[in-house]
């Protein structure tokens, strides 16, 4: 028995075929589409604050909401690049995280704008970001009253420059006897800056000081060698190379209470306090007469400057591998790095000048100065002219800025 549809088919009265239904084109396209929906980036939040005295990295990360296992990972990653025992008030922590508290990155900002960053991804990675500072040249002038330090502070110039001037002119000028007050001082210096923040220590470029009718001028090179040329009334007086550039004079020549033994004894040199590893330079051309260890002095380099004068550089942490006994060095050559070897309370350079075997004050003795070659050629005089021109231009700029700010 054959059943037929109750609908007539075309060409057959009373019989129709059941229409064939096809999917709508739009539905068909959606069903067949292979296009994935776009990923929605999670909303990120930023949390940041400075470290307070006595706080630890773990406590701060806990306050920021990180879980204990995540805090441990961050501490290990950052600790691989930075000693966490050196955390100080003023350092800061920045956390980037998702709304559900998952960390994306943790950044520790330390001194001089350096950042240690831990980034979370498939793996935890750490990097050290050191910003590129801008080198700016500044100028200032002051009238000396009670003291050089006070004059610099009052003029809003770095007071530590008084030590550099004392080093340079110590053998030529008696600041207590020769200065009666009212002397004019001009300084030109360079600073590394990140925005408005100074990075590191400033470096002197030029100084001019009028004393007793004479004009003393000092030009420092921009090469970082620390070697400076001293002029009197436009003529070269001598060349001086500081043993440690930018260091603080922490102990002078003469009798003092020994910092370790506690008794009063003769201090046969001068001490320059500086960070461990700071380069130490020869103060005059000479020949290396000794490299090694001496009791109390620790690691030592000694230079011979002719038949009667010798300089000694003590408490060094290291010396260049290529430095050998008998080798000749020039003023400003690096001969070692600041350390705390021997009898020392901390990193410093103990610097001595011996004349015929007897210690003499390194800041006043002129024999060592005579061992340094005088630069009386046109190059030295042209450097003085360039420094004077830069000094004048910088002072004019400072005056213009002050006038603009006051309007």
UniProtKB/TrEMBL annotation:
SUPFAM superfamilies tied to this protein: Duplicated hybrid motif (SSF51261)
Q: Which GO terms describe its molecular function?
A: metalloendopeptidase activity
Q: Where is the M23ase beta-sheet core domain?
A: 265-362
* InterPro entries xrefs: Cell_wall_metabolism_enzyme, Dup_hybrid_motif, M23ase_b-sheet_dom
Q: What is this protein called?
A: Peptidase family M23
Origin organism of this chain?
Answer: Salipiger profundus
Lineage at the top is: Bacteria, Pseudomonadati, Pseudomonadota, Alphaproteobacteria, Rhodobacterales
